Amino acid sequence: MSTVTEALQSRSSKRSYLPKPVPRDIQEKILQAAAMTPSGANMQPWVTYAVSDKDILKKVGDAIIEKMDTGVVHDQFIQYYPVNWTNPYKKRRIVTGAGLYKLMEVDRKDEATRLKMWQDNFRWFGAQTVFFVFTDKANIDGAEGVLIDCGAYMQSIMLLAREHGLDTCPQGSTTEFGKVVAKALDVPDNLALLYSVVIGYADDAKINTYQPARTSLEESVTFI
Ligand SMILES: Cc1cc2nc3c(=O)[nH]c(=O)nc-3n(C[C@H](O)[C@H](O)[C@H](O)COP(=O)(O)O)c2cc1C
To answer: What lines the ligand 1 site, CB under 6 Å?
Structure first.
């Protein structure tokens, strides 16, 4: 992987992995380089838990699924998705979801299979390593800037992963159960979960061929 363009173009969210943890030295290389991500006032507001312990990952996933089973739809520190979906974003979301279900031959009305596919998030798609990224609650008390910083940090991780032949899936699904994750991981009280990134060795499952299209520059950029 020699250029940033190649890393960007070869990255897509992978949702099926070989049961192989990412070696500790590679995790360290990725997180060391990702630490060079710029942040406002050089706050470096990310606090990362890099988890490869099978039992702990199972504990976190079980805790989320148990919470979902009680009918709770979120238990979170931050609201990731819009509360009121408007177009063109609503349409893009529908097209992206529909494309995945079509590829996997899942009927739109087959709620049980769709739920199972969503809960695969909490089985980490079979991957053995997950980075959980938190920030200090004080950083998001009346301000959102650190979300920009931590988003950039997420992208650094995902591109660096490509350099090491690894794939990733960013997860807002865990954001929605951030408080459950924080409790299961037993992190200090001052931390709020922002997101997680599944990282590992993607397998050749059909689901991993999905690459949703992007809008044209005409639609998203104004040159002046
Ligand atoms: C912040 C963020 C949160 C996401 N959360 C999830 C998630 O919880 N589960 C999932 O399967 N994909 C998740 N995705 C992946 C998006 O669906 C995906 O990036 C988008 O459809 C574009 O596809 P691509 O990443 O394959 O290019 C997330 C992406 C981002 C950037």
So the answer is: 12-13, 15, 96, 121, 169-173, 195, 211-212
State the DSSP H helix or E strand holding residue 191, giving kind and residue range, or none if neither.
strand 191-200
The distance from CA 75 to its chain's CA centroid, rounded to whole angstroms, is 17
Spatial strand order in the sheet of 129-136: 47-51, 129-136, 191-200, 167-171
Angle of helix 24-34 versus helix 145-163 axis, rounded to 10: 140
- Closest protein CA for atom 18 of ligand 1: 13
Quick check: 2 pLDDT over 90? no
Atom 30, ligand 1: which residue's CA is nearest? 170
Structure tokens at 91: 């349409």
Domain 4-83+122-210 class in CATH: alpha beta
> Which atom from ligand 1 is nearest to the alpha carbon of 15?
11
Q: Which ligand 1 atom is at minimum distance from the Cα of 80? A: 1
pLDDT in tens, 72-125: 999 999 999 999 999 999 999 999 999 999 999 999 899 999 999 999 999 999
* Average pLDDT of the segment spanning 15-31: 97
Domain boundaries defined on the chain: 4-83+122-210
Nearest CA to ligand 1 atom 22: 212
pTM of the predicted structure, to 2 decimals: 0.98
